[in-house]
Design a protein that fits this description.
about 290 residues, alpha/beta, Nitrilase/N-carbamoyl-D-aminoacid amidohydrolase, seven-stranded mixed β-sheet, about 25% helix, about 25% strand, globular, disordered N terminus, binds 2-oxoglutaric acid
Length: about 290
Amino acid sequence: MAAASNPPTFTPTPEPKKVRIALCQLGTTVDKDENIKIATKAIKEAASAGGASLVVLPEMWNCPYSNDSFPTYAEDIDAKASPSADALAKAAAANGVTLVGGSIPEKSNNRLYNTCLVFSREGALLAKHRKVHLFDIDIPGGVTFKESETLSPGESITVVDTDAGRLGIGICYDIRFPELAQLYAQRGAQLIVYPGAFNTTTGPVHWELLQRARAVDNQLFVAACSPARNPDASYQAWGHSTVVSPWGQVLGTIDEQPGIVYAELDYAEIQTRRLNMPITQQKRDDLYSLVDKT
Ligand SMILES: O=C(O)CCC(=O)C(=O)O
């Protein structure tokens, strides 16, 4: 069967070639100020003791993961009334790291979003990603959650150039939608970062599987950063923050306890894998295609 002539969509980004990433699996409390302190301390440790140049925080790191908490912990980022965003900007600059600031509940124009902020190593806000796919599921005897009771979905997708490479951003449930990751790959993302908080029902079966699938499908790096499990919380996070290579190998992971996962990302591997196995060129555009509507 003749392969369709697909144009290569990957534009290699010349620099950087190698990045040391740190995923901070934070223990989250009910006290926002305390959570900010915990996050700030972890960012410092990841940069200084850990030598990371790219630091990632978990989904909803400044509050308990619950619909009761989102409205009360939400902050208005655009109005510059966000102690969490301020603390992240300062921590990125103080430690000279690119920071994917997990997510926090954001309030904006009478709506709430699950929002990830990305900061440069100078502390400038580079991107804001609002979770596009809300986590609404009902698994009897397992987990039931309906983010749409309080949150609204984001309306745009996010690829951002940073000192630590070209990053695609998704939040947790966003990882279940392969087309989003494919669009990010088409736009030259080298790494897709998913702050996430899977749970003890879906986590054991899907968390690593989805990361490895997104990495292998798109021949790029994937990193997913979870909160640590809090036995007292209503939502039991799976933990297991993980980094995966374009070949689907787990480069670093952890259990459900607080801690920091480190990994070396050698972006040259992306090109090697794509040259050795050129699936992008082998796609059958005559039979199917991905439509970018953004
Ligand atoms: O997809 C899952 O199983 C979990 C998703 C989730 O916890 C979230 O989107 O916050």
